[in-house]
Design brief:
Elements lengths: L1 H73 L8 H11 L3 E7 L5 E5 L18 H10 L3 E2 L3 E2 L5 E11 L2 E10 L2 H7 L6 E6 L5 E5 L13 E8 L4 E9 L6 H30 L4 H27 L4 H27 L5 H31 L8 E3 L1 H18 L3 E5 L8 E3 L1 H17 L5 E11 L2 E10 L6 H4 L23 H11 L3 E7 L3 E11 L21 E5 L3 H13 L3 E5 L2 H10 L4 E5 L7 H11 L4 E6 L4 H9 L4 E4 L4 H7 L1 H4 L4
Parallel strand pairs: 12-14, 18-19, 18-20, 20-21, 21-22
Antiparallel strand pairs: 1-2, 1-6, 3-5, 4-5, 5-6, 7-8, 7-10, 9-10, 11-13, 14-15, 15-17, 16-17
Helix pairs in contact: 1-5, 7-8, 7-13, 8-12, 9-10, 10-12, 14-15
InterPro entries: 2C_system_His_kinase (IPR050956), CHASE_dom (IPR006189), CheY-like_superfamily (IPR011006), HATPase_C_sf (IPR036890), HATPase_dom (IPR003594), His_kinase_dom (IPR005467), HisK_dim/P_dom (IPR003661), HisK_dim/P_sf (IPR036097)
Enzyme class: transferase
Keywords: Membrane, Phosphoprotein, Transmembrane, Transmembrane helix
């Protein structure tokens, strides 16, 4: 009887398994098609972006030549005395330039830089050259001429770019450059190993290629092609093409779909088993019904509690602070694992994803920090340290940090200051740096071309160091109707579904509040599509003593052989910290509560203890208090997501040497660990 009963129970699970298998295969087939269409979109997107970069670079280099022409025209030719210097500068700054020369009105080469490699071209009469009519047409039109890929008299090939020069109402000649874009193009596509690229001029000459492009073996849908008009008068176009660099470009993606197929088959099998076990447990329906009644009673009780909770009048800022605190704990694990992976050898195809994860997690951390900062400001809990620092030196450090970000966007950041003093002030260097950083990040975010100029001035007034800082950008500017609200919470220049710039709208609000708490002033002037300038005035008491600078180079110190105890009940946090310490050569052990920490420290020899604050059985504060009764020398560093001043003061009050807020970066550990692990004899 039991065997017959089992067969009946198997019928429905087998039917479920068959349905799931059918669905899995249909989804798998659809996934293969989706992978193909996704890759095609990637090619189109990548090709479009890279083509814009290529042609923007060409425009930029041509503009450099036209700028030289304009300087000659504006000075009615007197700028010729700086020809040699300016030409060398252009060659240094633009790797696409092979030479710069001056053609007179008869198209004879009069000057050329550099001279040594191009001496044979000096005095060359080009009036019989095939490109003379083209050159003459552009002279009449006063427009810049770009020739096809041309063989040079002195050897090699290049594009010849002519910019006709007029002053005092007459044509005087043309500034001409030989350009080869191979080097800058290679720099633009250095990271595109899985794509092949070629660029062709209007005559069909391939003057640039990467990774041996082969259009014959690849379907047309996998090739991105676009054209760019480089010479409007002559109708010259360059054609840019991007395609996969190898024929098995979909193989790796298909491997992933096979993994999903196996997972789907396994899931179907497990689901069928679940259905079988469910049928086998039907005898427990009465028990489940009873449990359901209890659940309804519990739901009624929960609704009553919910009504009671809704009537409570908790402050909004307290809620935000608690939520932010809870977010930082798992964020610690995310950022920690990212840092561990960044220090590991991983497949190159994953580096881009890891980089995006790193950027996204740090953006989330910045948002959490902003929320916490607002909570402290609005609840009146903001405190200021008394650091001894040089405002000018700190400003230079911040500019140096964001210099690379600016360069990646094609921008420049310059400091305009005649201050030469070494004056130091007393104030909160962190808050000062946060103010400058928020304004600078805002300018970088809304600036697409040009750059940012930072002006700095300082004066001594009544034994105080009065500083004035102006940060001026060439960005999109701020509409007049938004200037008055730019420092309000959650206010942004571009809003709505079509906005192009990310951000929470908290940075400038925090900046305004911090400046106000420091007794300073901040203002802004702006013009749409021209740029924005922030004006900042602050005063700090002059320092009577010089700041102490550490000479220890943490990167050169060998920490191998040092032993550390990690006390934390969160397994993920322990794993992250252990992996990070391994990268520094530090041995580590772990326990999960304060009681275990007491016994372990008594029976073993450690150089340092990382102590979590919130743990079961015995919290970190109580454990530290007990450890200090029998060991006053061991270093103890507190760990917590609580960033309030009260929490930090309480931790140091029970005997902790230092207090690290989560998440903890690799750089922070590398900087501070030598203070506790390096023994000075």
């Amino acid at each position: 009887m039991s065997l017959k009963f089992s067969k009946k129970e198997l019928i429905f699970p087998i039917a479920v398994f068959a349905v799931f298998i059918t669905i899995v295969f249909l989804l798998w087939n659809k996934s293969l098609k989706t992978q193909k269409s996704t890759f095609i979109r990637e090619i189109q997107t990548t090709g479009s972006l890279r083509a814009k970069e290529f042609f923007s670079l060409v425009k930029y280099d041509v503009k450099s030549l036209e700028n030289l022409k304009q300087r000659i025209e504006m000075t009615n030719g007197s700028y010729f005395q700086y020809w040699e210097k300016d030409a060398h500068l252009i060659l240094e700054q633009n790797p696409s330039f092979k030479f710069v020369e001056w053609l007179d009105t008869l198209m004879t080469v009069k000057m050329i830089t550099p001279l040594e490699a191009n001496r044979t071209a000096v005095g060359l009469d080009l009036s019989k050259h095939p490109r003379y009519p083209e050159w003459r047409n552009h002279v009449r039109d006063s427009s810049t001429n770009i020739s096809p890929w041309t063989k040079l008299h002195q050897g090699g090939n290049a594009f010849l770019v002519d910019a006709p020069v007029y002053f005092e109402g007459k044509f005087r000649g043309s500034v001409t450059a030989g350009m080869d874009f191979t080097t800058p193009f290679n720099e633009l596509v250095a990271d595109l190993d899985k794509y092949a690229i070629e660029v062709i001029d209007e005559r069909g000459t391939i003057f640039y290629s990467k990774n041996n492009p082969n259009t014959s073996g690849i379907g047309k849908e996998f090739i991105f092609t676009t054209s760019f008009v480089v010479d409007t008068l002559d109708g010259q176009k360059w054609t840019f093409s991007l395609m996969p660099s190898h024929l098995d470009f979909l193989a790796e993606r298909k491997e992933a779909t096979y993994v999903y197929l196996i997972f789907g088959l396994l899931l179907s099998f497990l689901t069928s088993l679940l259905v079988y076990f469910y049928q086998s447990s039907r005898g427990k329906n009465k028990y489940l019904g009873h449990a359901n009644i209890k659940l309804k009673v519990l739901n009624k009780s929960l609704k009553k509690e919910q009504v009671r909770a809704e009537k409570s009048s908790k402050a909004k800022t307290e809620f935000i602070s608690n939520m932010s605190h809870e977010i930082r704990t798992p964020l610690n694990a995310i950022i920690g694992f990212i840092e561990v992976l960044k220090l590991s050898e991983i497949h190159s195809s994953l580096k881009e994803y890891l980089s995006l994860m790193d950027i996204s997690s740090k953006k989330l951390l910045l948002l959490v920090n902003d929320i916490l900062e607002i909570d402290k400001i609005e609840s009146g809990k903001t405190t200021f340290r008394k650091d001894i620092f040089s405002p000018l030196h700190e400003l230079k450090n911040i500019i140096r940090i964001y210099q690379r970000t600016a360069e990646e966007k094609g921008l420049n950041i310059s400091l305009d200051s005649t201050v030469n003093s070494d004056l130091e002030a007393v104030g909160d260097i962190g808050k000062y740096g946060q103010i400058i950083t928020n304004i600078l990040r805002n300018s970088l975010k809304f600036t697409e071309k040009g750059g940012i100029t930072v002006s700095y001035d300082e004066n001594i007034v009544n034994n105080e160091l009065a500083i004035d800082i102006a940060i001026k950008d060439t960005g999109i500017g701020i509409p007049k109707n938004k200037l008055k609200t730019i420092f309000d919470r959650f206010t942004q220049v571009d809003i709505g579904k079509a906005k192009r710039h990310e951000g929470s709208g908290l940075g400038l609000y925090i900046t305004y509040k911090l400046v106000d708490l420091l007794g300073g002033k901040i203002g802004v002037t702006s013009q749409e599509n021209v740029g924005t300038e922030f004006h900042l005035s602050l005063k700090f008491p002059l320092s009577e003593t010089k700041s102490k600078t550490s000479t220890t180079n943490s990167e050169s110190i060998d920490l191998s052989g040092c032993k550390v105890l990690i006390v934390d009940d969160n397994r993920v946090n322990v794993m992250v910290l252990k992996k990070t310490l391994e990268k520094l050569g530090v041995q580590s052990e772990s326990v999960s509560d304060g009681l275990e920490a007491l016994n372990t420290v008594q029976n073993n020899c450690y150089d340092l203890v990382f102590m979590d604050i919130h743990m079961p059985k015995m919290d970190g504060l109580s454990a530290t208090r007990e450890i200090r009764k029998f060991n006053k020398d061991i270093g103890i560093i507190g760990l917590s997501a609580d960033v309030t001043k009260e929490a930090i003061d309480e931790a140091k009050g029970v005997g902790m040497n230092e207090y690290f807020t989560k998440p903890i970066s690799f750089d922070k550990l590398r900087k501070h660990l030598p203070n506790y692990l390096v023994k000075i004899s």
